[in-house]
Amino acid sequence: MQDKIFVTRSSMPELDEYVEEIRGLWSSHWLTNMGEKHKKFQEQLIHYLNVDNVELLTNGHMALELTMQAMHLEGEVITTPFTFASTTHAIVRNGLEPVFCDINSDDFTINVEEIEKLVTDRTCAILPVHVYGNVCNVEEIDRIARKYGLKVIYDAAHSFGVSYQGKGIGQFGDAACFSFHATKVFNSIEGGAVCFLDKEFGRELYRLKNFGIRGPEIVDGVGANAKMNEFCAAMGLCNLRHINEEIEKRRKIAECYRNYLEGVEGIRLNPVQRLVNSNYAYFPIIIEETDFGASRNELYEELAKHNIITRKYFYPLTNTFACFHNKYDVGKTPVALYISKRVLTLPIYGDLDLAITEKICRIILDCHRRAASKSFFG
Ligand code: T4K
Asked: Where does residue 96 rank: exposed (0-12), middle (13-18), buried (19+ CB within 10 A)?
């Protein structure tokens, strides 16, 4: 039996390339606190992401958390529960109140028709997620934000390299927060970044990522330590050289999945969005049990029997997490609940063999065939 295939596998440069990138650190002894690699990585990201400003952070979560702190937000933040724990936790850890908005059933991003109904005099911001790299309805979100004077912070953790209408995705909103975690399309081992326009906000964010230190003898903010170290920045610099190749390889995997799975009864695929250059970050499928014959969980188990370890991103919804003690009414986000019970994200990463991708598809098709002919599951 083949080795386990996971939902993703970190992309890495050749070892020699990384060693060459970090070699200078052995003479400089400058390992963190905004060193040379940090500066170079920041400059290259501004260019690659096609944005005005980038601030580097330790991870995507701190990007979200410190962005809200740097905006001095108070009150309620409209967001979605169909996301990773980080999005909601960043709101709550800022002492803000998440107000959960439902998602679209086709692209899983925030349903803009529901946002205005949730605006109150306590609303300070909207925090939508470009989930799986799918682009939110940025025009409508912008219109609503302007109408009510709200900040817009995009959780762009999944969206590295995505562009919409030729513009880098980091150009939308007051801030866009990226994750460079090992499991992402682009990684710096751990890492994150915020793209923004307002330079004053940028200075505040910079200060907060360094304990709130303004000068050698002035500490006038209660900040954190969220500085990207030189080893992570060096990994980012290396991976950035290969990012286009990584995305192209993922495109081929996604195409292969589409060829096999498009039109299969009971399977719905992630949409191909108009005017969007995708990064193929994830390959989610929605399983409708009555048509497919087996449930999402049964398919998950079936694939696991063949050492294919898929994930249920994002189940459970964040508004059902035990840490919130039933505070939120999940009935208010019925579409998110529906999708979270049916979604399965299939393995996708640049080095995934096309033959294995085909094999995964055959297992899925076989599961469907057997389930349909009722010989499946006894
Ligand atoms: N917002 C959103 C919408 C997010 O999805 C995330 C993170 C964030 C914000 C916060 O960004 P960060 O603070 O993380 O930068 C993973 C990641 O840890 C997390 O970054 C990611 N979202 C989330 C969707 O997935 P897990 O607990 O599912 O990861 P784990 O350890 O099970 O890894 C999944 C698979 O990846 C493994 O089965 C194998 C592979 N892998 C994993 C690691 C750790 C590797 O190939 N190399 C590795 O080093 O959360």
From this structure: buried
How many whole angstroms separate alpha carbon 87 and alpha carbon 156? Answer: 10
For residue 69, what pLDDT is reported?
98
pLDDT at 259: 98
Determine the atom of ligand 1 nearest the C-alpha atom of 349: 46
> Average pLDDT of 318-334?
98
> Do the Cβ atoms of 71 and 117 come closer than 8 Å?
no
Whether the model clears a pTM of 0.90, i.e. scores above it, the answer is yes
Say if strands 76-79 and 97-100 run parallel, antiparallel, or are unpaired. parallel
Q: Given the CA of residue 90, which atom of ligand 1 is nearest to it? A: 9
Distances (CA, A) of 305 to 39, 302, 378: 46, 5, 16
Name the β-bridge partners of 344. 285
- Cα(282) to centroid of ligand 1, in Å? 12
- For residue 214, pLDDT over 90 is answered with yes
- Asked if residues 163 and 169 have their Cβ atoms less than 8 Å apart, the reply is yes
Ligand 1 mutation pick, 6, 181, 348, 351, max ligand atoms within 8 A of CB: 181
Cα–Cα dist 229/188, whole Å: 10
- Where in 204-338 does DSSP place strands (E)? 213-215, 218-219, 267-269, 276-277, 283-287, 308-309
Q: Which two tokens stand for residue 13?
A: 């440069």
Task: Find tokens 């990207």 and name the residue.
Answer: 228
Is 293 in a helix, a strand, or coil?
coil
What residues line ligand 1, using a CB cutoff of 6 Å? 6-10, 59-61, 83-84, 86-87, 129, 155, 157-158, 179, 181-183, 192, 313
Closest alpha carbon to 60 in 127, 135, 134: 127
Could you give the count of Cα atoms lying within 13 Å of 84 in the half-sphere of its Cβ? Answer: 16
Helix/strand number for the chain, H first, E second? 14, 17
Q: What is 315-378 written as a DSSP string?
A: -S-GGG-GGGTT-S-GGG-HHHHHHHTTEEEEP--TT--HHHHHHHHHHHHHHHHHHHTT-TT-
Q: What's the angle, vertex CA 59, arms to CA 57 and CA 60, rounded to 5?
A: 105
Mean pLDDT across the chain, nearest whole number?
97
Q: Give the H or E element holding residue 194.
A: strand 192-196
